[in-house]
Amino acid sequence: MTRDEFERNKRRFGDDVGAWPAPFRQEARAFVTGETARSPQDDPDRALDRLVLEAALMASDEQALTHKVLARIDAGRRSTWSSFLPRFLLEPAGLAACAAAMLVAMTLAGYQVARLQDDLQDSELLALASGARLSDNGLSGDGLSGIAADPAAGEDSL
Amino acid sequence: MVPAAVQHEEPREDDELLARVAAGNQGALSELIARHGRGLRMFAARYLGNAGDAEDVVQEVFVTIWKQAARFDPARGRASTWLYRITANRCIDQRRRRALRTFIGLDDVRDEVASQEPGAEATTAARQELAIVRDCLSRLPERQRMAVLLRAVGDLDIAAIAEVMGGSAGSAEQLLVRGRRALRDHLRDHLAMAAEGLERKSS
Which residue windows are transmembrane per the record (chain A) (predicted)? Predict the structure, then answer.
């Protein structure tokens, strides 16, 4: 930390360095005491912390961050309801839930269709068992089954 | 031994800012970002080893704070601890997401945190040393790395580290002690190797 940075932070956060937010606080303390990670210190842990802090330092633009955060908040406010479904679907859990719901729906639909077909086959088998004969045009007297319920009706159609 | 508490005043200013954020004041949020954005970003970047992910995490954190500031209770802890707790949780989520993407081949993870002066790395011994520290940090087990960073970057005491990481003070202290020991061991090995390399070159 340079003298200019220290003075600038003093104007931002006040005279009491102890009340500054981290990591400004640690940097200011080091600046005031003149200690660095490499200068001899009584506490080796403090020296290591200082070294880790120096290694972690990186350029940072809080104003740009503020703009991005506020933009996100505004975007979220505008599209809370309109984009709820797509955002939900983009989440892995949402995608999995949707896939599971579709699978269940398709299974139920499949059962329904199969049951209708089964009903048809059941009535055909019942008619066959009661001695009905297949009609050539594929329609019986009631127009639903390929088996004539009345054996005589089947003969008439020949 | 690690000191039980760090000697610094409680910045109650953050509590007031959070109360104003809870009331919907965007200026207060900007002020909060100015105070803590840098620290949270440094912590996330070093923990995740990726500047882009860290930026995204910190943005998410402040959006969360905007939405949930009313849930902060000053009686239960410091505001900075709450901020680091949210950030730590987001970092863990981000790491899991990244691991999943890497596992299914969508990502190639590399340490992508820019130094303070890009391109200036390795020009002096001090910068080389910091690059070695960053490398050693990335080799620490995740929870040890988190404890070390919360202490060094966030300036949190043991109780606050325990609160952020969701454990007891004893386990947080152990993590910190082990993390520091492992970091020192890595650094010693690295520096010995570097010295050996220099000797070989000069001979």
Answer: 88-111
**Cα separations in angstroms, A79 against A71, A75, B66, B139:** 12, 6, 16, 41
Per-residue pLDDT of chain A (158 residues; tens, 9 = 90+): 888 889 999 898 988 888 899 899 999 988 888 876 666 667 889 889 999 999 998 888 889 999 999 999 988 877 665 555 666 666 777 788 889 999 999 999 988 888 777 666 777 778 878 887 766 554 454 545 555 555 555 444 44
Binary contact (A22, B116; C-beta < 8 A): no
Contact flag A60-B80 (C-beta cutoff 8 Å): no
- Whose tokens are 């803590």? That residue is B36
* DSSP-derived secondary structure letter, B112: B
Q: Which of B159, B202, B137 is nearest to A55 (CA)?
A: B137
pTM metric for this prediction = 0.71
**Number of Cα atoms under 13 Å in the Cβ half of residue A116:** 6
The segment(s) of chain B belonging to CATH 1.10.1740.10 are 11-114
CATH number attached to the domain at B11-114? 1.10.1740.10
User: Domain B119-203 falls in which CATH fold?
Assistant: Arc Repressor Mutant, subunit A (1.10.10)
H-type alpha helices, B49-141: 51-68, 79-103, 125-139
CB contact under 8 A, B66 and A73: yes
ipTM: 0.83
- Residue numbers in B near A20 (CB within 8 A): 11
Task: Spell out which residues of chain A touch residue B51, defining contact as CB-CB under 8 Å.
Answer: 58
Q: Give the minimum alpha-carbon distance from A96 to chain B in angstroms, rounded to a whole number.
A: 15
Our CA-based measurement puts residue B78 at a distance from the nearest CA of chain A, in whole angstroms, of 12
Measure the CA–CA gap between A27 and A104, rounded to whole angstroms: 59
Least Cα separation, residue B81 to chain A (angstroms): 11
